[in-house]
Design brief:
mainly alpha, 2 strands, about 60% helix
Length: about 250
């Protein structure tokens, strides 16, 4: 690594990125030889993100590299550090305004610009911010329209499925008493068939008290009936999940 630093500096960064180099040794070599870009990479890779950012700002003075690091990490503390340090450099403020995009609220930058500081092409930067904001509004509106249309389509599909009939075979029997439903048809008796295709005599359901609490908007007890088998299965599943020690 030291040989590359002395004689093939242009290959050192690629070497650091492609090989597992001891970070402490790499840091010492880069610091001793003042290899700032390579040192920034080593610091960032080793987790010393704050020092890496400060070196980009003060040593490299590259707002684009600073933004690249902060956007990649997306930590509010790094954003705050970058904004604070940029307030001393008009060209950094311009870079932030032009490239901050949707990552943070641009007002965090605009409200902290020192009074009387001249910012290069400030007007163009503000126009770009407004354009990006309008673009975000249009995108959100488009997304809302798509979600609304999808919701309506799904609601229509659900309504269509709810209005469909439930097929019951000629050999179907009451899921509680086991008596064939065909016999009930011959001797008229109220039947209840749920969409899960479980069928019952109305009196069998009444005997098991499988009637839910009245729901606002429903007309009466007939609308509050529920399937005994499905209700029992769901209750058993919930009970098993609550028991400690179960996966």
């Amino acid at each position: 690594m030291e040989l590359l630093a002395d004689y093939r500096r242009e290959h050192l960064m690629a070497f650091l990125m492609a090989n597992s180099v001891p970070l402490n040794a790499a840091k010492e070599v880069c610091e001793a030889k003042r290899l700032i870009p390579e040192l920034v990479f080593v610091l960032h890779f080793s987790g010393d993100k704050k020092r890496a950012l400060m070196m980009i700002i003060h040593e490299l003075q590259d707002i684009n590299k600073a933004l690249e690091l902060v956007v990649e990490e997306n930590e509010d503390e790094l954003w705050e550090m970058l904004i604070t340090e940029s307030m001393k450099k008009p060209e950094f403020i311009q870079g932030l305004l032009n490239n901050v995009g949707t990552h943070i609220d641009p007002r965090r930058i605009i409200q902290r610009i020192p009074q009387g500081m001249e910012i290069p092409k400030l007007r163009d930067s503000l126009v770009k911010i407004m354009h990006d904001y309008n673009l975000q509004i249009e995108l959100r509106k488009g997304c809302c329209d798509i979600i609304t249309n999808d919701s309506i389509m799904l609601l229509v599909r659900l309504n269509r499925q709810q209005r469909m009939g439930v097929a019951v075979g000629s050999s179907a029997a009451c899921s509680l008493c086991g008596v064939a439903l065909a016999e009930s048809v011959a001797a008229p008796e109220p039947l209840v068939v749920f969409r899960c295709q479980h069928a019952y005599h109305r009196r069998c359901l009444a005997d098991t008290s499988m009637v839910e609490r009245p729901t606002p908007g429903r007309r009466g007890e007939e609308d509050n009936l529920c399937c005994v088998l499905c209700r029992s299965e769901a209750t058993s599943t919930r009970r098993n999940r609550r028991q400690p020690g179960r996966p």
